[in-house]
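Hi there,

I know you've been waiting on this one. I reran it after we fixed the sequence typo, so this is the corrected version. Both the input and the resulting structure follow.
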Amino acid sequence: MTEPTYRQTDLLSFAQRLLEAAGLAADRAAIVAEVLVEGDLLGHTTHGLALLPGYLNAIATGGMAVHGEWETVSDRGASVLWDGRRLPGPWLVVQAIDLALERAALHGTATVVIRRSHHIACLAAYLARVTSRGMVVILQSSDPSVASVAPFGGTRAFITPNPIAAGFPTHGDPVLLDVSTSTTTNGLTGRLRNEGRTLDHRWLLDANGQPTPNPAALFTDPPGSILPLGGVDSGHKGYALGLLVEALTAALGGFGRADASEGWGAAVFLQVIDPTAFGGLNAFLRQTTWLAEAARATPPVPGMDAVRLPGARGLALRRQQLIEGVRLYPSIMPALAPWAERLGVPATDMDEAI
């Protein structure tokens, strides 16, 4: 499939205008658009603008709130709990990062948990906001309303892919990781099912508990499930990590799977750590830079050109796409076209690919 290419600025403008036309305030729409486009810049094509039709539908049906503010449920300085009141997830997370950066500089570390947020998109898209300030970030998310991942040894889904993202600075590029605690994601399996394709490996279980690469297994009655990270051999590791994410997001927030579902959304754990409060930033960077250089200096296995650090491919792709244009997955713009027509947002400036 041919991937159309667009200027980043055009994509930002188009996405923001769609969100504003749907009812979101300009400042909030700009942040949501920025986070979604950042996902595509980094190569996370299922968690960039591919999410925008779902966001617009959530606004239209009332699943995403467009007005109001979050509620501060608890604030002890270095630990904060917000009730997101179903407000746009990317906007909430960016506000939480701003607060956590300020508090971490004061206390050495700061943790913000958000309950009842709407979906927060690509976790990797937020990390550089913190690492560029010389700090460390840990970001985790779950969705109490969705179940697609089975426990290790089980055949029925009970949690979500529950990603863990983190970033830390070095003297060069930061190290950025964004890893699901499952073998694959809901976004990819849904895309492949729609296209009549299969996964590269047997990362799913059908309803009878048999491993399969067929994404249609998730849509049977009863449905199959996604295996935890590690698959049939080492899935106990991903299972354990998935449970940890549930505890740090929904359980710490006090709203999760034990409560009635409110629809597609997120429970969020954000922690920012200031190295100056510990061994010092220079000492921290000395160690992380050594690790980065040692990893890259390791001789690669046959078939690999070089050892890469987590996030290196995405950062290189981002730099390239800022110059050459953002390659969108072919199904994204056709999915947005009906919304552009419905909301009266002309896409004429999006017609000419570069």
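Quick highlight: The domain at 5-183+227-287+310-350 is CATH 3.30.1370.60 (Ribosomal Protein S8; Chain: A, domain 1).

Best,
R. S.
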